[in-house]
Amino acid sequence: MRGITIPLLVALLFAVCTVAMTASPALAQQDEQVVTVTAKQYEFSPQTITVKKGTPVVLELTSLDRLHGFSCPALKLRSDIPPGKTTTVRFVPDKVGTFPFHCDNFCGSGHEHMIGTITVTE
Q1: Which of 69, 66, 60, 68 is nearest to 87 (CA)?
Q2: Which residues pair with 99 in a beta bridge?
Q3: Whole-angstrom distance, CA of residue 101 vs CA of residue 117
Q4: Residue whose C-alpha is closest to residue 95's, from 56, 37, 53
Q5: Which residues contact 44 (CB under 8 A, 6 or more apart)?
Q6: SS3 of 56, please?
Q7: How far apart are CA 26 and CA 32, in angstroms?
Q8: Whose CA is closest to 41, among 117, 121, 97, 103?
Q9: Which SS3 state, helix, strand or coil, does residue 94 take?
Q10: pLDDT for 15-51, tens place per residue?
Q11: Cα separations (Å) of 87 from 74, 80, 116?
């Protein structure tokens, strides 16, 4: 009897852990705010991103033409955005305010105009 109980307990524990591991990402994704941002020829779209403090945010960054960068130093966000790929940046805003972001990979004449803001509200 004892030989049967221990493997059964191990199997149940494994099953519970497996369910917990697969359920957690799904729950986290339900709470995330997904923002799609495109970068092309010296502009981001949208240029203003509004998110809520404490809510997980996923930025899906896509470049339509060439390598760009996404940098928001005040929120400690940084990523390259290679053309033709979607780059994901996840963060949880922990302070309210308006924070500038910009392209930090020189992409040509007009690069200095590749700017935007992330506004974090209560």
Answers
A1: 60
A2: 118
A3: 6
A4: 53
A5: 37, 38, 70, 101, 103, 114, 115, 116
A6: coil
A7: 10
A8: 103
A9: coil
A10: 433 333 334 444 446 799 999 999 999 999 999 999 9
A11: 20, 8, 18
Pair type for strands 97-102 and 115-121: antiparallel
**6-31 exposure pattern, b = at least 16 Cβ within 10 A, e = fewer:** eeeeeeeeeeeeeeeeeeeeeeeeee
10 Å CB burial of residue 84 (0-12, 13-18, 19+) is exposed
Amino acid in the structure at residue 98: T
Whether residue 98 contacts residue 122, with contact meaning beta carbons closer than 8 Å, is answered with no
pTM above 0.85, yes or no: no
Token representation of residue 97: 């305010």
Task: Dump pLDDT digits (tens) for 66-118.
Answer: 999 999 999 999 999 999 999 999 999 999 999 999 999 999 899 999 999 99
Give 7-46 as a DSSP string.
HHHHHHHHHHHHHHHHHHHHHHHHHPEEEEEEEETTEEES
**What is the length of the chain?**
122
